[in-house]
Every structure is written in structure tokens, then in C-alpha cells.
């Protein structure tokens, strides 16, 4: 998965570097909607490399639609692998990396992000005004 850093890359250069302006605008809208922070650990995109993670992994039937993508840091993304959000939160608690309350808050942030990102999905499909 291609990652994005918030420092040293102009918006125009970033958009030219990936699949096209319409895809990029949705991608950037997801980062902005999530506050340019990792939804798992809370790391700020100014200090870590952020990426988009599939809530439901592609191998489990998940899509690339914005409602199935959330902002996480590369560290959290690679640690999660293809676990479900619930399984990953439980694993973090069992590993002593998060309290139960923090895990519940993480799952709630993901659910909230999915609702916000559904609006981005609809905007991507809306026809452009002439």
C-alpha cells in the first residue's frame, strides 16, 4: 500500500504521483476527515507516516471504497495485518499495549470514521456539474 507523509510533499506533486485526481481527492478527504491522525494510536501525521487501512481486508471481501478505509500510521497498519478491528483491539489489550477502555475507544473511532467516509463515497460517485 502506498503511504503518504504530510511533510515535504506538495499537494500537486502527491496527486500527480498516484492514480488520478479524483482518487486522490477522496484519499486526501479521508486523511482530513480523520484529523491526519492514526485512529489506533493517535500519532500525528506531522511526525509519522500515515497510510490508509482497510477496515475489512481485501482478502476478506473488503472494498477500496472510502467507507472501508481509515487513517492509521504505518506501524499500526503493519501490526494489524488482516485481523478484524475487534480482533486487533483484543490483541492489543492482551499484549498490554492498550487498556480495554482504549480498545473500545479505538473501535468507536473506526465506526465513526466509517460513517463520515460514507459521505466521501457518495461524493465520489456523484456526477460532476457542468
Describe the structure.
This protein is mostly helical. The protein has helices spanning 11-17, 21-33, 74-80, 85-94, 100-125, and strands at 50-54, 69-73. The chain has one domain (11-124). A two-stranded antiparallel ribbon has the order 1-2. It is globular, with a radius of gyration of 15 Å.
Task: Please provide a brief summary of the model.
It contains five helices and two strands; from the N terminus they run ααββααα. With 130 residues, the chain is mainly α.
Distance between the termini: 34 Å
Helix content: 40-55%
SSE order in H/E notation?
Answer: HHEEHHH
User: Which assembly state applies to the chains in this document?
Assistant: single chain
Tally of contiguous helical segments = 5
**Average of pLDDT:** 83
Strand content: 5-15%
Q: State the domain count.
A: 1
Quantity of strands, as a count: 2
Radius of gyration: 15 Å
Structural class: mainly alpha
Largest sheet: 2 strands, antiparallel
Strand order of the largest sheet: 1-2
Q: What is the overall silhouette?
A: globular
Low-confidence stretches: 1-8
Amino acid at each position: 500500500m502506498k503511504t503518504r507523509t504530510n511533510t515535504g510533499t506538495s499537494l500537486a506533486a502527491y496527486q500527480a504521483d498516484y492514480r488520478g485526481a479524483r482518487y486522490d481527492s477522496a484519499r486526501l478527504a479521508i486523511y482530513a476527515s480523520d484529523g491526519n491522525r492514526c485512529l489506533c494510536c493517535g500519532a500525528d501525521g506531522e511526525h509519522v507516516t500515515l497510510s490508509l487501512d482497510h477496515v475489512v481486508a481485501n482478502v476478506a471481501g473488503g472494498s477500496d471504497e472510502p467507507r472501508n478505509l481509515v487513517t492509521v500510521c504505518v506501524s499500526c497498519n503493519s501490526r494489524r495485518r488482516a485481523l478484524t478491528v475487534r480482533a486487533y483491539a483484543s490483541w492489543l489489550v492482551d499484549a498490554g499495549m492498550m487498556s480495554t477502555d482504549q480498545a473500545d475507544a479505538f473501535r468507536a473511532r473506526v465506526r465513526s470514521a466509517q460513517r463520515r467516509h460514507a459521505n466521501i463515497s457518495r461524493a465520489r460517485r456523484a456526477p460532476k456539474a457542468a
